[in-house]
Amino acid sequence: MRMARNMRRSRNIWSFIPNNQAQSLLIMTILKQNKGILEKIVRERREWIHVKDDKGRNSLHYAASTGYLYGVEYLLRHCHTCNMEKDNDGFFPLHLASAFGHTKVVKKLLENCPDPREIVDNKGRNIVHISTIIGQFNVVKYVLQDTNDEVKDMINDKDCDGNTPLHLAASHSRPKIVQALTWDTKVDIHCLNNNNQTALDRLTWCQLKSAGVQNAKRGSHSIEITSPRKPEAKKTDFYKDRINTLMVVSTLITTVAFAAGFTLPGGNNSSSPGKQGIAVMLNHGWFKPFIFCITASMYGGISVTIILIWAQLGDITLALLALNVATPLLGVTLATLSVAFLAGVHLVISDLSWLATTILILCVILIFLLLLLYTLLWFPLESSNIIMRYISFYPFRFLTWLFEDSTEGK
Prior knowledge:
The chain crosses the membrane at residues 243-266, 286-311, 318-349, 355-379. By secondary structure, the chain is mostly helical. It contains 19 helices and no strands. The relative contact order is 0.05.
């Protein structure tokens, strides 16, 4: 009898708690992720699940935003409509789980969502839009890998401004998400928003806005007629500056290679009869790659200089052709000069094996990095060819990593 009275008394305690305090109690339980108290509250006062706070959020909103997977599963079992309730900003629990990057919770909520494409906030944004804006790459990646067509079709949905997730990824500088979206064949990379902008247009517009560029005043528009074959003056100046820079580099390479050709490592033989002037280290194994690479650097630098002289004759088409030929040739010349330096240094320290090995490993790593950085300069900026996209995949990932590290540091 005493146990029965205690049970009735404990049930009566819940009935005395007003709804405004009930929500606070339930939210605190979810934030603390207290499984036992959550089950007891739902068992005694199930209607508290539907009580909302001043932001219009119910208990499932808070469980989703904190990534409390058990709480989400438990609440979904006892409330089949909570997943479809908005807060004051139009956010569903799915939006909050996506914004905080809780992929497992997103998966569970999607399983209990009849039509994921209808889950949009007051601005028409679905969970991919929200994840993209915040930068939650794992959520976007999960949606792209989902086998449910209803889920995956969200990647091309537009918000109230007509922006797809790709538009937002470009305008919010999310390179990893841009890469993931553009690699998926279902993503429409040519889709236009309400301002007739593609994702690339959107990126350009955002960069101009951040630089403080103002819109033209009404009535101040002018029409400028230009020849389609003649580039703008600024563009011509850009190519001239680039040509001059490459000429300076090629001239320096030629000078260094010429000097190295007459100041060989180890010097020349001046004492042995009949061998005067012959290189002392002529029979050394590393002398052959040294002399080969220094010769290639010498004539490579001269060739680049001559090609760039042709580029300065005034014809823009010839200048572009010269740049396309000179840039990779200069890269090869820089590589041979780097190898020549490695071989020359190795020649004079080869008797000390540990130092020679250390310098060899260090130089190989640095030469590889230099070639990688230089290759990125003349890689095609755009290509729909699948082979070229696979080739450019890892350099792009490298640049993405550098960009994200720099932005996180700020």
